[in-house]
Design goal:
The complex is a heterodimer. Chain A is mainly alpha-helical. Chain A starts with a helix and ends in a 9-residue tail after the last helix. Chain A contains 3 helices and no strands. By secondary structure, chain B is an all-alpha fold. Chain B has a domain of about 400 residues: Sodium/glucose cotransporter. Chain B starts with 8 loop residues before the first helix and ends in a 13-residue tail after the last helix. Classes of the chains: A mainly alpha, B mainly alpha. The interface between A and B is large, with 47 and 52 residues.
Chain lengths: ~90, ~600
């Protein structure tokens, strides 16, 4: 397998992990919205309410930065990262 | 100042922010000295619009690269701010807190949808489109799939989605300008339009970028300052985001105590159009999982298909910067979106809690009608009370309010000085203007670059191309303003439709263009046109009394449109020949961050 194919394989792997986490916070937890809202969560808000106000939103911010860093590592590993002067 | 413009950006915008805060303080002092509320409102809107116009003028350019993609040198954090302003429209600023106030959980799917979409942008599209080196979104479709028909189909989808969106934004600038400057709406719309064009006409994307950063700073100050101030004034907590649990619980208690009494249809007839009462629980789960998830999903896929957002990531210096920049965009959006539910909570509690001095439920009608702010907002047609049961005291089901009032009236209800209301008007104007600019530019650029330059006259000189782009900008702006002046639809409804149109026609052709090498021209054209037509058909069908299926409503028709688009694209691609070697090589190159961009610097 060529260098480029391996790079793409890893990139695709990272995509699937990212989308899986995204799925949990955007769709997965809201399948159980009614049940989860009975429980008190962070700062005393009901769990589901907190996720819609802050939790999921914050998780997406962190997820994107984490994804960007991981992808940069993959690019460096295969020598595909950009030179600064480009 | 030493050094070049880009290196000095933090300093320039630091001075600008300081200047704006200074202006707020001057206005506050002027208010104490007796300046009228009306003059303060005019000063806020006029001052900020003047600054944006000045930035627009200073960013003027005659180069295609600067006009279309701001010279591809916008640093990540600043591009994040510009995207956040581009993204957060009049709907986010003025209408979102109101929607949460009235509809609670079911509406908050929009908060999740309008943020979660950025994960798709960062992982599926933005870095690859940046590597491609295109000027516009149809530029990518046209080059990846080849042929004028594919390019033209993308322009059609882009125009339908963006135009639906932009009329709502021009409408919002008109509403704010008409209130702040006290002129009729029909004229105010054009005042708003001219302000918008001042930012984008001379500098194109470069002008829009630097005005959007300035607009973000104004709108975030205008949103956060009142939320923190009100929370502290009510004694709810000095950092509302972490401290409103008691208030949320208290609203739940009051809901139990008052109950949601259903009004008779005859009684509701007397309520002015556009006003609503509190009929849904504040923090309880009041929607089925599918209703919530389908709306969130439609907004997320729509986010990843809207060209005015995508083209902001064409302006970063590198692929790496494009990815990081998506993160910063969402961070800046998060600051406002996480505050909207807090504002809704504070607003609702201050109105309905009889233990608070501002609470009106349980008071007599004579008492409420004597309150200054009630009279003002009743006159502005945003508040209404009526004694349906004739007992003389105001009940929860007898109080009606417009959605906009949550953002616009809460500072006044909480007893904040008028300078805050002036600031909020300037913030709403900034939010609507920045989005309108991004959208008008997206449409004008697509038509001037993809239709005029790439299809009609490929030999045109740069000067002529940019002239065409500017003429189109003005024409599209005026067309949008003319439709906005007719006031056909509400702000929020048409914004959501824009997302559905965009995802119906563009989501899968864009994503599969990068992630599926086998996708070819015939498949993409079928996907774009088929998806758009299917989505539009579903919307018309449901609007004209159709029952719909699978719980897909007129707000989520994009789910049906994009499903049709996906099926058509896969089936048609597999039935026709695979893309040629050169195209497959191009896709391979897009997937690697290093090396030259696919399209040359000045294509």
């Amino acid at each position: 397998m060529s260098n480029q194919q391996k790079h793409w394989e890893k990139t695709r792997g990272l995509l699937f992990i990212t989308l899986a986490i995204w799925f949990v916070f955007s769709i997965g937890i809201f399948l159980f919205g009614a049940e989860m809202n009975e429980v008190t969560g962070p700062f005393g808000y009901p769990w589901t309410y907190w996720f819609t106000c802050q939790g999921s939103l914050g998780a997406f911010v962190i997820l994107i930065f984490w994804f960007a860093n991981r992808q940069e590592k993959i690019d460096e590993e295969f020598g595909f990262s950009e030179r600064e002067d480009e | 100042m030493k050094g070049n413009f880009i290196d000095n950006l933090p300093k320039i915008y630091g001075i600008y922010t300081g200047g704006f805060v200074g202006f707020i303080i001057i206005m506050a002092i002027a208010e104490q000295m007796g300046m009228t509320a009306k003059t303060i409102g005019i000063a806020f809107v006029a001052f900020t619009v003047f600054i944006y116009a000045l930035i627009g003028y200073l960013s003027r350019t005659a180069q295609a690269d600067a006009y279309y993609v701001a010279g591809r040198q916008v640093p990540t954090v600043f591009n994040g701010m510009a995207t956040a302003a581009d993204w957060m429209s009049g709907a986010s600023f003025v209408a979102m807190a109101g929607g949460i106030y009235f509809k609670g959980y079911g509406y908050m799917a929009l908060l999740v949808g309008w943020t979660g979409g950025y994960v798709l942008v960062a992982s599926l599209l933005a870095p690859y489109l940046r590597k491609f080196g295109c000027y516009t979104v149809p530029d990518f479709i046209g080059t990846r799939y080849g042929g004028n028909l594919a390019r033209f189909s993308a322009v059609v989808v882009l125009t339908v989605a963006s135009f639906t969106y932009v009329t709502a934004q021009i409408n919002a600038t008109g509403t704010i300008a008409s209130v702040a400057l006290d002129i009729p709406f029909q004229y105010a719309v054009y005042v708003g339009l001219i302000s918008i064009l001042l930012c984008s006409m001379l500098g194109g994307m470069r002008g829009v970028t630097w005005t959007q950063v300035a607009q973000y700073i104004v709108l975030i100050i205008a949103y956060l300052l009142p939320v923190f101030w009100i929370s502290n004034k009510m004694g709810a907590g000095f950092f509302p985001h972490f401290m409103l649990a008691d208030e949320v619980a208290r609203i739940g208690e009051l809901e139990q105590q008052f109950g949601f009494v259903k009004n008779a249809a005859a009684d509701l007839k007397s309520v002015p159009k556009g006003l609503a009462g509190i009929t849904k629980a504040h923090s309880a789960v009041n929607a089925t999982p599918w209703a919530f998830i389908s709306l969130a999903l439609a907004m997320m896929m729509g986010t990843a298909s809207l060209p005015h957002v995508m083209m902001r990531y064409f302006t970063t210096p590198s692929v790496k910067a494009a990815r990081k920049s998506v993160g910063w965009s969402l961070f800046f959006i998060f600051l406002l979106y996480s505050s909207a539910p807090m504002l809704a909570t504070l607003s609702k509690l201050s109105l309905i809690d009889p233990n608070l001095p501002t609470g009106i439920i349980g008071k007599t009608f004579a008492e409420v009608e004597a309150i200054d702010w009630y009279q003002n907002w009743n006159q502005a047609n945003l508040m209404f009370i009526s004694d349906f049961n004739g007992n003389g005291t105001l009940e929860l089901n007898e109080f009606f309010m417009g959605g906009k009032a949550v953002v616009l009236a809460t500072p006044e209800i909480a007893g904040l000085p008028y300078v805050i209301s002036g600031l909020v008007a300037a913030g709403g104007m900034a939010a609507a203007m920045s989005t309108a600019d991004g959208l008008i530019l997206a449409i004008a650029n697509a038509i001037s670059h993809d239709v005029y330059y790439k299809i009609i006259d490929p030999k045109a000189e740069t000067a002529k191309r940019l002239l065409v782009a500017r003429v189109l900008l003005v024409i599209i702006g005026f067309a949008g303003a003319t439709i906005a002046a007719m006031e056909i639809q509400g702000i929020l409804g048409s914004v959501i439709w824009a997302f559905d149109f965009a995802m119906s026609g563009l989501f899968f052709p864009l994503v599969l263009g990068v992630w599926w090498k086998r996708a070819n021209r015939q498949g993409a054209i079928a996907g774009m046109l088929g998806g758009l037509i299917a989505g539009a058909w579903y919307l018309v069908w449901v609007r004209t009394g159709g029952s719909g299926f699978l719980g897909i409503t007129q707000l989520t028709f994009g789910i049906f449109g994009s499903a049709v688009s996906l099926v058509l694209m896969v089936v048609v691609s597999l039935m026709t020949t695979e893309p040629d070697k050169a195209t497959q090589k191009m896709v391979d190159d897009v997937r690697v961050p290093s090396g030259k961009s696919i399209l040359g610097k000045s294509h």
